[in-house]
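User: My instructor asked us to take a sequence, write out its structure as tokens, and then describe one feature of it. I'm not sure where to start. Here is the sequence I was given:
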Amino acid sequence: MEFNKEFLEDFELAANDHGEPHWLVDGRVEALNEFNELDYPQSKKINWDLLEINEPKWHKSNRQLIPDCENNGNIQIIQLGQKVIVNNLTDDLEEAGVVITDIFTAFRQHPRLIQKSFMNKVINSDEDKFTAFHAAMLNAGIFVYIPKGIQVDQTIEIHVLKDDTLNLPLITHVLVVAEGDSSVNIVEEITDKGSNKNIFNGFTEVLARMNAKIDFKILNKLSGDGEVFLKDKAYLGKGATVNWEENLLNDSKTYASFENNLFGADSKVKTTLNVKSPNNKEFNINVVKHGNNVSSEFDKNFDA
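Assistant: Let's start with the prediction itself. The structure tokens for your sequence are:
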């Protein structure tokens, strides 16, 4: 698929009109070129042609769709469609340097924290056609930054609601950067409302620096028929620990890639995979061990 000059100009103009920094716009255009040159991962169940390249578009969702969330004392962030509309990060954590925000806000306001990490250290846009698509077409997401030595005692709840009242795919990205000797517990819940058959393309990048500890639980409760394309990956520094709990509770066709790079010595990762309706889901599970004395565990429970 070749993109003509007019399309590329309109594509770049749409990203610029969205107020994106030049480095991000340049990255989108570069990903388009990579999309032309790369291949999709092999799959027997997924129709990759559903990942369509168009000009980036943004639409506001009806705030009446906001899910009810129990006031349980946790830090809560709610992404309704493409926008973050609730964020109750506490003042003391904000003063300590913790950042939890919409990913496009982070691109504009925190480039020093995000530019070198976003699709550069953990997942790269040029891995395959799938990653290039995501980098080019990103339209939503959340950025979490935990400074060195900060222990976040409260659970961070991320609620992502795919707005299927609109005819618009959700291409969303969660990036977590935990600096050395920090710790955080994150629970992400993904749901939907509406009847349109939109795809869901969700990437999660976790960058755990030296001796950082991250517990990350993801509950995919999408109820619609739109196909689901996932890629979750962690990069672990020396002595870092990441515990994943992946819960695929959706009924729709799903491609999911779960990957970990144990780069630093003495790093540890554990992945627990709970799957409903496994027959229409396809998985890529990969662990790369670079460091010495690293540890990797994997447990699965199908028809959870």
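For the description part of your assignment, you could build on this observation: Residues 22-37 form the longest helix (16 residues). Try explaining in your own words what that tells you about the chain.
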